[in-house]
Specification:
The protein is α+β, with helices and mostly antiparallel strands. Among the domains are: 94-207, no CATH class; 286-388, no CATH class. Helices cover 42% and strands 16% of the residues. It has 14 helices and 14 strands. The strands form 5 sheets. It has a 4-stranded antiparallel β-sheet, with helices on both faces. Strand 3 (76-80) and strand 4 form a beta hairpin. Helix 9 crosses helix 11 (247-255). The longest helix is centred in the N-terminal third of the chain and has 27 residues, at 94-120. It is globular. GO terms for molecular function: DNA binding. This is Winged helix DNA-binding domain-containing protein. Keywords: DNA-binding.
Length: 389
């Protein structure tokens, strides 16, 4: 009886990536929720990313329709999740996400806030709990409220914390900043109506919908299964990086699933049992994905779809990826929007006429979607700066 591990090649990994994340003409989604489900969660740190990630994968994207769906809490929620980062996720996944990522983020932020309160002589755990209850009541009375409105309404919330006093990097921030983050990460608050244009990251706060209570180990295992379904096969380091968990938590969560070990071109990996057999390679297609898109941010090790030589141009110093051009499951270039609205791109490799035409078609699709709207990525990369210079 053979004990050899099932093998999944880089070509097969790209085929899965293309089928799940980069649907070509005739296979695109009809809604933002479909898009979010296909990539598990949409990065929301940069407000423009959500719209552009959805539009790239939709058949007939309309800005106003995407806007409406993004604020339909029966379908989608904004949550602080993996790596303390803001995401838009399918509401059905929210209970697991809260238990697996949100509450640990909240506990860490609360611990840090208590330390800062003590250092600044402002209060203790009892004071913080009382202030948190008062903050939630203030939101309940107003239906929605901004951070500034709450800082005015709740005594003590506007106090300034001195962080790293006496250091060259000393800074100040209000108690409201950390407390509201913790309350949201803990599932009490959610981002409500946006204040400002579509690229604004200023939102009012609203009470979060009640979610089922899921034990943390069960929630982590559920999230691993979702990740393997959307991004698998992948490696243990990939999963640890994507979730932000400890190595022990990651191993336990993986062991709690029915994932099986497989052999990838660059070493061991894991996949769901139903994802072992080869998949048909989809018809090659092009895509223009925005900065911080969930696809290129889904793995730590990206060699199966990105030539490492191109990473310095596409990533900033903190590891945030800029806008990318894709063909047939690979990153083949980058793109940017100039201040006058022109979409420009640069290819890293020579493509044939058919491939270049497909890329131009996506440029035109993006231009149609954007119309007269302008945006600048929150994190600028060397290629983005070069293309817009």
């Amino acid at each position: 009886m053979s004990t050899a591990l099932p093998r999944i090649t880089d070509a097969q990994r790209r085929a899965r990536l293309a089928r799940r994340h980069l649907p070509g003409p005739g296979r695109r989604a009809a809604s933002v929720r479909e898009v979010a489900e296909s990539v598990l969660a949409l990065h929301a740190t940069d407000p423009a990313t959500i719209y552009l990630s959805a539009a790239a994968r939709m058949d007939n994207p309309q800005h106003e329709a995407i806007e409406r769906e993004l604020y339909d809490r029966d379908a989608l929620l904004r949550m602080t999740a993996m790596r303390c980062t803001l995401f838009v996720i399918p509401t059905t996944l929210a209970p697991a996400m809260l238990a697996a990522c949100g509450r640990p983020n909240a506990a860490a932020r609360t611990k840090g806030l208590l330390r800062q309160l003590e250092q600044n002589g402002y209060g203790d755990a009892a004071w913080l709990e009382k202030t948190g209850r008062a903050t939630l009541e203030a939101v309940r009375e107003r239906s929605e409220a901004t951070t500034a409105e709450l800082a005015t309404a709740v005594p003590g919330l506007d106090r300034q914390l001195v962080v790293s006093p006496g250091k060259p990097y000393e800074s100040r921030r209000s108690i409201a900043t950390d407390l509201l983050f913790a309350l949201a990460a803990d599932g009490h608050l959610t981002r409500g109506t946006r204040r400002g244009g579509w690229t604004s990251n200023q939102h009012a706060w609203a009470l979060a919908p009640a979610l089922d209570d899921v034990p943390a180990p069960q929630a982590r295992a559920e999230l691993v299964r979702h990740w393997l379904s959307a991004f698998g096969p992948g490696t243990l380091p990939d999963l640890k990086w994507w979730t932000g968990w400890t190595l022990t938590e990651t191993r336990k969560a993986l062991a709690a699933t029915d994932a099986v070990e497989v052999r990838l071109d660059d070493g061991p990996g894991y996949a769901l049992p139903q994802d072992i057999e080869p998949v048909d390679t989809p018809e090659p297609s092009a895509a223009l994905l925005p900065a911080l898109d969930p696809t290129p941010m889904g793995w730590r090790d990206r060699g199966f779809y990105l030539d490492p030589a191109h990473s310095p141009a596409l990533f900033d110093r903190m590891g945030n990826i800029g806008p990318t051009v894709w063909w047939d499951g690979r990153i083949v270039g980058g793109w940017a929007q100039r201040p006058d609205g022109t979409i420009v791109h640069r290819l890293f490799t020579d493509l044939g006429r058919e491939e270049c035409t497909a890329v131009e078609t996506e440029v035109n699709r993006l231009n149609t979607f954007l119309g007269d709207r302008r945006f600048v990525p929150a994190y600028r990369t060397p290629l983005d700066r070069d293309l817009t210079a």
